[in-house]
Amino acid sequence: MEWILGLLIIVLGGAAVVVIYLSERISIFETLLGLNPKVTSDKLAEHVAFGPNPFGDLSGENLWKAMIGEDIDDDIEVGDVDTLRPRYELVITRHIEMMLEDGRFDARNGERTAVKPTLRIPMLRGSVESFIPFVEASRLYEIGQEVEAKPENAEKLAAEVDEIVDELFGKVQLERRTSFGRSLLPMTDDTDGNDSDDLDDLELPDAPGLDDQLALPPGDEDADAKKDAS
């Protein structure tokens, strides 16, 4: 009877060791993934499918709200937004690019698809869902469509893109440093073969001693003169 009790104690002790070991392994696993210990199965599935979120729990519309300074209703740890803003600039920039690209791609194929104010943006490590308001997202898509239909309006559309970017960047406390429109839309070539005329208008720099290099050496001139005299 005593040996049965001893065996039972050994089995229970072994089970306790296994449970403690697995618990520690799970904790280490969550730490390596950068997940909150209270992670849900949905977040775990998202992490496995798309990689880690560089913005922690902030994603989609909550990420946008954090950047514009709005309160987030959900129980989400926001952290220091200012330190995240430079990285967020890459996210919103790529979102703007993708909206224009979608519009141009669909226009070339004679299609129209639903506007996506929320897109998953891949990053160097992991990815994050990006959100921009539907009005701006829809207009960027339409500009992509219009520039393919009427390329002669590219300059005007590029200026409108910059206005939209200025509005979006202003809300998230960023500053546009270059023309998004001119870099993302196909600009018409205004030269029309005038490159050669432009080259004709350019003045070549004066080369010191150039006339002297083209002239015959004095010795050779004297020799020719002597030959003529003879």
Give the structure's gist in a few sentences.
The chain is built from ten helices and two strands.
Describe this structure in words.
The protein is mainly α and 230 residues long. The protein folds into two domains: 11-50; 51-184, no CATH class. Helices cover 62% and strands 4% of the residues. A two-stranded antiparallel sheet has the order 1-2. β1 (118-122) and β2 (127-131) form a beta hairpin. The chain is elongated and about 95 Å long. The protein starts with a helix and ends with a helix. The model is unreliable at 190-221 (pLDDT under 50).
**Low-pLDDT residue intervals, each spanning 5 or more residues:** 190-221
Tally of helical runs:
10
Order of helices and strands: HHHHEEHHHHHH
Helix percent band: 55-70%
Overall geometry: elongated
Could you say how many structural domains there are in total? 2
On the 0 to 100 scale, the average pLDDT is 76
Q: Span between N and C termini?
A: 143 Å
Radius of gyration: 34 Å
Could you tell me the number of beta strands? 2
Largest sheet: 2 strands, antiparallel
The class by helix and strand makeup works out as mainly alpha
